[in-house]
Amino acid sequence: MLNILGSSPRIAKVPWYKRFLMYWVNHFQQAVGSLGELWRTPMASLMTMAVLGISLALPASFHLLLKNAERVTASWDNAAEVSLFLQPGLSEKTTQNFIQRISLYSEVEAVTYISKEQAIVEFREMSGFGNALDFLDENPLPAVVQVTPKPQHASPAGAKLLLAKLQQEKEVEQGKLDIEWLERLHGMISLVVDSVVAIAFLLLASVLLIVGNTIRLNILNRRSEIEVMKLVGATDAFIHRPFLYTGLWYGLIGGMIAWVLTSSLVLWMESAVIRVAGLYQSDFRLLGLSLAEFVFMLGLASLLGLVSSYITVKRHIHLIEP
Amino acid sequence: MIKFEQVSKVYSGSHQALQKVDFHLQQGEMAFLTGHSGAGKSTLLKLISLLERPSDGKIYLNGNDISQVSRRHVPYLRRHIGIIFQDHRLLMDKTVFENVALPLVIEGYGRSEIERRVMAALDKVGLSDKAFCVPVHLSGGEQQRVGIARAVVNKPPLLLADEPTGNLDPKLSTEILKLFEAFNSVGVSVLIATHDLGLIAKMRYRTLTLRNGKMSSDGLLGGSYA
Fold this sequence. Notes:
A: 4-stranded antiparallel β-sheet; 10 helices; B: 7 helices; 10 strands; 27% strand
């Protein structure tokens, strides 16, 4: 196909190694060139990048919110505690034996015994029904053993399994696990996660559309240049490249703006969070984006920019014919 | 170099631009293509550079049937044809140097080679002192010469020109044609579409005349072509 020119000896072909080298030199020049092109219209470019930055900062902030919320609730998970109400009329010895036995369970972290007497004292103090208790002939409260599971068995499901096992013991009249609120919390969190993921997808789709539309306008503006390039024998790939780089720059710089926005948000929230945490006697600190998350965000943003400009360029440059 | 066999071109809307056109331009030959406006001159040039595809018939470039050329290979074919337009199609925001260098950059030449060839091409058209001007600061004749420099910088074996003197006065037109003659004298095949009959008469080259899409005469204008 290439020998349309036949054996014309005046055409000195470019040797392949030089062509290969110049291919990369061209790549570099086009990359820098498209950055220069963006610099030539700083306001317009910056506005597009800012829109991208905000669209990316929102999912990133949601992610931070979830990450920090999970850290808070992780400590609540371990608060799951199994209360065992013992059969009435057990002897002191039997009770001690029972406590000994369940402390040896591999799932159990700690066991606390609250005798009937301790229970009634506590109840008297806490409930405000102290005088009413004096009218009772005998102590109606059972002895209670509180079992704290080890962290790896502290999830709602794990704690439930432990409860079932403990209820098999003959000394136990009834076991109770207060995990309903924990299950509700977990349900709530997964609901929030789902909606955040959905919103993140919508925002990322908007990034695709914004970059695509900007590149499309770019192509239309440079229509005559593209026609001339096609006339003098530029391949489609050669014409595509500057636009692909433009998309890449949009994504990359948009990603950096998103990082700045998210980090500023964390800084701004931090003092407020420390104050609230102080009120709860907690030394909780807000976590920002880690290095891996930062790199992931930049990579994702660049990829989005590249993909959307590729789709646009593929479609529109094909349509421009001299 | 160029051979048309019973080539027809029908545009959508059933406008018949060319009808069964036959001609053969030898390698190293220079010829004019003339006819009233709308006779099909531009269409004929577009078919050679694959800007359009023929509806019927065959076109050979250097013995190769170009209707077989796939879309992907069209750019490589165009690199062997220098095309010159009436509106010269320069990039107005780039310097003369960058405009002329474009085909070489696309081909993948190195920096020093590009510089050498561009300056040589600009020297040939007499614009070496305007290399770093932008085209808007040049006169019409100078802009056209930049277009010619761009067309020949890659040393193509074939030059096509569509009304290259359309906007120029007779003196400038003659200068431009002298340039084409110079390229032809080193073996480049040249086909020039023009309706400037006075110019053709002066130059005495083979002339192909189109009338309503048909080849109505082939030879020296006012004489016969051997």
